[in-house]
Design a protein that fits this description.
The complex is a heterodimer of chains A (376) and B (163). Chain A is an alpha+beta fold and 376 residues long. Chain A has a single domain, classed as Cytochrome-c3 Hydrogenase, chain B, CATH 1.10.645.10. Helices cover 51% and strands 13% of the residues of chain A. The radius of gyration of chain A is 23 Å and the shape is globular. Chain B is an alpha/beta fold and 163 residues long. Classes of the chains: A alpha+beta (376), B alpha/beta (163). At the A-B interface, α2, α4, β6, β7 and β8 of A face β3, β4 and α3 of B.
C-alpha cells in the first residue's frame, strides 16, 4: 500500500497541530494591567486556560488594620484607579452605620451624583478599550474624547479626575452652587447626544457585530454558578442591581430602569453598558435638579463603637461588598473587600474555551476587568 | 419573610443546635453555626431556596479563633458565621455546591492557613509563588511585625484622636 504525497502532508500537518501552551502576561501589550494566562491552543482554538492573579496585590486589607478610620478613606480610594469613589462610598456608609450617623440628604445626593458620573466615565472607558481590542479604533478615539466631558465635570466638582476624595465619614467635602449646576446640566445634555451617536454607530456597524456576537458567551446558569455580578450578569439575563435591590445613598429617591439583555456575549454586554450610561446621565439630571438644601456633612467621632457591618453597593462593574469590624478603637479590626471583578475573573476559563486566539482581547475586554480591584 | 423561612429550615435541619439570628447593619442577618453544619446549611440554601449568590467569604483571626463569614445575598444579606481552631483549621469546601466559591476559599487559605477539604484547586490566589507558606499575612502575630506604621512613624501617637 502506497501513501500519496497529499495524504502524507495532511498527516504531517495534523500531527503538528498538537497542543501548544502560550504564556500571556503579566507584562503584555494586549493587557492593560498585569495578569498572567497560560493558554493551551490547538491550532487557532483555545482548549484550556490557566489564570494567575496577584501581580498588583498590595495587601490593602492589612494596611487598613494599621490605619485609623479617617486615614482608611484615602487607602480604600486607591483600591481601584477607575471606580475609586464607589470604594469610599461603601466604606464610609459602613462606618457611618457603625457610628449610627444620619448623613444629610444633600450629602447623599452629591455622593450619588459622583457615583453616577463615575459609572459614566467607567463605562465610556470600557467602550473605548473594547472598541480598540476588536480593532475599531475610531470608536475608541471618540469614546475617550467624549469621556473627557465627564472627567472635566468631576475635576471641577472635586479637584481630581480619578481620585476624587469626595467622601468623608459623615458626608461629602464638596458642594455645588446654582451656576455650576446649570453648567453641568448643559454639558450632560451634550454628552447624551454624543453617546446616542456612538450607540447608533455601534448598533449599525457590521464589523463590530461580527467581532462581538457569540464571543465570550456566558449563560444565565453559568452566571449564577460563578456568582457573577453587575453588567456582565445583566447581559446574560440575570436581573440584579444593588441600586434597585438594596437602595443606598439617594437611590431610593431616583427613577431609573435596570437594563438587561439575554444573549450573554460581548455584544449583549455592550448593549447593556452603553444604554446604562444614558440611564446614568438621566439619574445625574434628576440628582442635580432635585438637590435638597442643607449641610453637606455631620461631625463624626473618630473612635467607632464595637460592632460589625456588611456594606454593599453597585460599583460600575457590579456588587461591591465591604465587611468592617470594629473593636472600639480608632482603627478597624478587619476590613474585607470583595470587588466585582473577582467573580468575573473566575469565569474566564469557561469563556475562553473554544474561542479563536484573535478573539481573546475581545473576551478579556468584554467582562470589564479591573485587575487592581481584584488583587487589592 | 424569606429570612424567616430560611431560619425555620435551618432549625429543622439541625435540631440539636440553637440557631440564633442577629441583625447587623446594613440589612444583614448573621447566623452562627458549628463548622460541621456549614456545608449542610449551604446545601439547604442552594437546594431549597435557590440562594446561590455567595458574595464572598471573610476570614478573620480574632486572636482566639479563626472566624469564617459566608456572605450570601438574595434580596437581603445572609451571613453564615463559623469558628475554627487556630491550630490546623479546616472545613469542607463549598465549591461542589457553588463553583464561584473557589477563588474566595483560595484567598482565605493562603491568608489565614485554613484548609478547605475537597477544594479542586487549592493553589495560592494572590501571593507570589515563592512566598513562604508558613507566613500567613492575615494572622495576628504576637509582635504584629508585618508593617506596623507606629513602628516606623514615631509621631504616629500624636495623631491619635482625643474625643
Amino acid at each position: 500500500m502506497t501513501t500519496r504525497p497529499s495524504d502524507y502532508l495532511t498527516k504531517r500537518l495534523t500531527d503538528q497541530m498538537t497542543r501548544i501552551t502560550i504564556p500571556i502576561g503579566p507584562q503584555h501589550p494586549a493587557l492593560k494591567e498585569p495578569l498572567s494566562f497560560l493558554l493551551t491552543v490547538e491550532g487557532e482554538r483555545i482548549v484550556e486556560s490557566v489564570l494567575r492573579l496577584g501581580y498588583v496585590h498590595r495587601g490593602i486589607e492589612r494596611i487598613c488594620q494599621n490605619r485609623n478610620y479617617v486615614q482608611n478613606v484615602h487607602v480604600v480610594e486607591r483600591v481601584c484607579g477607575i471606580c475609586s469613589h464607589i470604594h469610599t462610598t461603601v466604606y464610609c456608609q459602613g462606618v457611618e452605620a457603625l457610628l449610627g450617623l444620619q448623613v444629610p440628604p444633600r450629602a447623599l445626593y452629591l455622593r450619588t451624583l459622583l457615583c453616577e458620573l463615575e459609572r459614566i466615565h467607567s463605562h465610556m472607558l470600557w467602550l473605548g478599550v473594547l472598541a480598540e481590542n476588536v480593532g475599531f479604533t475610531t470608536i475608541f478615539m471618540y469614546a475617550w474624547r467624549d469621556r473627557e466631558i465627564v472627567l472635566d465635570i468631576m475635576e471641577e466638582l472635586s479637584g481630581g479626575r480619578v481620585a476624587h476624595a469626595v467622601n468623608v465619614i459623615g458626608g461629602v467635602r464638596v458642594d455645588v452652587d446654582e451656576p455650576q449646576v446649570d453648567s453641568i446640566l448643559m454639558r450632560l445634555d451634550e454628552l447624551e447626544q454624543r453617546i446616542e451617536t456612538l450607540l447608533g454607530v455601534i448598533q449599525h456597524e457590521r464589523t463590530f457585530q461580527v467581532r462581538t456576537r457569540g464571543v465570550g458567551h456566558l449563560s444565565a446558569e453559568q452566571v449564577r454558578r460563578y456568582c457573577v455580578v453587575g453588567p456582565t450578569a445583566r447581559a446574560s439575563g440575570v436581573d440584579v442591581d444593588m441600586r434597585r435591590d438594596a437602595p443606598y445613598a439617594a437611590y431610593d429617591r431616583l427613577d431609573f430602569r435596570v437594563i438587561t439583555a439575554e444573549e450573554g456575549d460581548v455584544w449583549a454586554r455592550t448593549m447593556v453598558r452603553v444604554p446604562e450610561t444614558i440611564e446614568s446621565l438621566h439619574m445625574c439630571q434628576q440628582l442635580l435638579t432635585g438637590l435638597p438644601d442643607g449641610p453637606t456633612t455631620v461631625r463624626a467621632r473618630r473612635r467607632v463603637p464595637p460592632g460589625e457591618v456588611v456594606s454593599r453597593a453597585e460599583a460600575p462593574r457590579g456588587e461591591l461588598i465591604y465587611y468592617i469590624r470594629s473593636d472600639g478603637s480608632d482603627r478597624p479590626a478587619r476590613v474585607k473587600i470583595r470587588t466585582p471583578t473577582l467573580p468575573a475573573l473566575s469565569t474566564l476559563p469557561d469563556q475562553l474555551r473554544g474561542v479563536h486566539t484573535a478573539d481573546v482581547p475581545a473576551v478579556l475586554a468584554g467582562v470589564d476587568l479591573c485587575i487592581a480591584c481584584a488583587d487589592r | 419573610m424569606l429570612m424567616e423561612a430560611i431560619l425555620q429550615a435551618l432549625r429543622e435541619t439541625f435540631p440539636a443546635e440553637t440557631i440564633e439570628a442577629r441583625a447587623v447593619p446594613i440589612g444583614e442577618t448573621f447566623v452562627a453555626l458549628p463548622p460541621d453544619c456549614l456545608h449542610p446549611a449551604a446545601q439547604v440554601l442552594v437546594e431549597r431556596f435557590d440562594l446561590r449568590h455567595l458574595s464572598t467569604i471573610t476570614g478573620q483571626d480574632t486572636g482566639s479563633a479563626i472566624e469564617l463569614l459566608y456572605h450570601f445575598w438574595d434580596g437581603g444579606g445572609l451571613t453564615l458565621r463559623t469558628s475554627l481552631p487556630r491550630e490546623e483549621p479546616h472545613i469542607a469546601t463549598l465549591t461542589d455546591l457553588i463553583p464561584g466559591a473557589a477563588f474566595y476559599e483560595r484567598e482565605v487559605c493562603e491568608m489565614l492557613g485554613v484548609t478547605f477539604d475537597g477544594h479542586p484547586d487549592p493553589r495560592a490566589l494572590l501571593l507570589p509563588d515563592d512566598w513562604d507558606k508558613e507566613q500567613l499575612p492575615m494572622r495576628m502575630t504576637n509582635d504584629q511585625s508585618i508593617d506596623h506604621p507606629t513602628k516606623r512613624l514615631p509621631d504616629q501617637e500624636t495623631h491619635r484622636p482625643n474625643d
